[in-house]
Fold:
Amino acid sequence: MQKRPLHEKGHRPTQREKTARSFRAYVELLDAAEYMKAKLSFQLESFDLTMQGFRLLEMLYREGPVTVPDAAEKRGCKRQNMDAIVARLEKRGWVERAVVRRPPAEIPEGHLPKAMRGKQREGPRVAMVRLTKLGTKFMGTVFPRHAKTVKAWMRALDGREQESLSHICAKLREGHFLKFVSEITHLHEGDEGEEDVVFQC
Structure:
């Protein structure tokens, strides 16, 4: 018996169909990301850059100096991996590490010890990664060219679709904790046979 399409009016998808639909969307997302990464990495290689290296340079170019732990957190990688990326970029003269003072924490005057009131306070010293003059000049050349290439590939989507894609990706990264817990902890009718549906879709 042929199954009705999920978009057919009046048809309520079963749990197995929902699982298959979710998995298809997941695979399409991974395939699209890998496809775009492969296409755009080729251009970066001509500048002797990896995608990870470019993403760090782009972050520094756009946001300014950042600590290595903060950079690792923003890029979703381990501290050791970020140290290695920074080291490679340092050898090229594009970035440098510098010890700077962060602004002091904002504490109401009345909450400070009497001995510290009315005195200028200094924030903690931290090691930051920043672009060098050479790195800033380099990104001033590379970034516009790469952005132009990105724009060319993204022309497959119109403006509204690009906005929707950005919104959908942000929504996926944020997640929905309650929905996740609800789905992962409840056994729906037909869940036992979901593997057959998922890996055949």
